[in-house]
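Help wanted!
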Amino acid sequence: MNRMPSVETTAESDAIAVERTLAGDRDAFRILVERHSRNVYRLAYRMTGNQHDAEEVVQEAFLRAYQKLSQFASRANFGTWVYRIAANYAIDRMRQKKSEDSNRALPARETEDGMEMDLMSTVPDAAPSPERLAQSGQLAVQMRRALTQLTPAERTAFVMRHWGGSGIEEIAEALKSSTSAAKNTVFRSVQKLRKTLEPFVEQRGRVRAMGTEL
Amino acid sequence: MKHPKEEELIAYHDGEDAGRETITAHLGDCPECQAELARIDALLAALNTIPVPDPGEDYGQRAWQQISPRLPQHRAHWWGFLFSEPKTAPWFAPRRWAAAGAIAALVLAAFIAGRFSRPNVPGNSVAVDQTKVRERILVMAVGEHLGRSEMVLVELANSGPDTAGQKEVNISGEQRRAEDLLEENRLYRQTALEQGDTALAGVLDELERVLLDVAHSPQQVTPAQLEAIRQRIEARGILFKVRVVGKELQQREESGSAPASPNGSAKGERNKV
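Answered by r_m:
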């Protein structure tokens, strides 16, 4: 069974793996990939919105990390570093894709995934009624759609801030912007999401309230 | 007090310290702003429920398998400049690899020659003998391993469609053997590294990448894909390096510097090329 290592142990172990990789032991890098790839994948999926692109972002992020590893030597946290590299690459990739097809519709698989998702099942209250299931499916689709409507910078800022817990400085670095511009991008992303999604969220709230009362 | 702006409430939700006390005090007296903050909370909570598909327990291993064949050599070794990424030419530029191969072969040959002509130091003969035995075992085993690897690479270089119209070539046999060789290769490379034999470890490292490349190719490849595999092998000059190193090790075995092969297969296999 795998035990969850402490943050300090992971950081120390990462530092050793980095040193060994820099000394020419390629297998040491494997430890870093196996340890951090799932976390990077989660970020990449949330940024790109699909598995194929997410996996490519993961690969590219680790390749870039390997190539720049000597620059990492003085830094403390490999996980944070490779996370930032992934965010940088993902935003470039999204920008490129957006320019290729700015009006891309949601892929069928995405819509299907969304419809299969039962968001209400995560809410610990009364058994879901058919109306509530319909509402939750619709909300899931709308949420995914709203995220795709953000610009790459807004999506990156939102994902890093609200799902990755990144600080404004870190986001500014990924966006290659000033901290005030990054702050503004975070705000704009939430503002846009509110505009698109609040009617659905409020509707769900009303349906939930009705379900609880009944 | 005037109401906080929307962006200030979002920052408040995010835990921003700036102006926090003032906003908290305001929220205590302002149902309107409380409702606004509750809407922000509800939206972000709803967004948190978007699931991320689980890539599977073995995702880390799969990611490594995809990444490892693409990793360039690090520059920590003294010969690292040969493998650095030039700004003007790709890392696999044939001239660069040909030069690297030639130098690596010369270095390795000199290293092995120096190792086996080293005089015994009186008073330390037991330790020296044990070291020599270990070195000889490694030399013999690596010699056999290189012979088998060479065969796989040569077979790939010579394979192709049986008929002009054949759309795919089956390389599953070579692929399976490459997979088998990979594990051995890792072991020998690590042993060579532990013994400080960085030159041999370097050649084995390059061989490992080629073997990985072959092992992860599809079982059925188109002639174009096969040609691409061949070109990657050729660009790395690995066949040349394997031959030079294999030949050197074979000569050492024949001259009696190493114990005889238990099954006598090393010499026979290497000479098939």
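OP: Thanks! One thing I noticed: Chain A touches chain B through 54 residues (CB under 8 Å).
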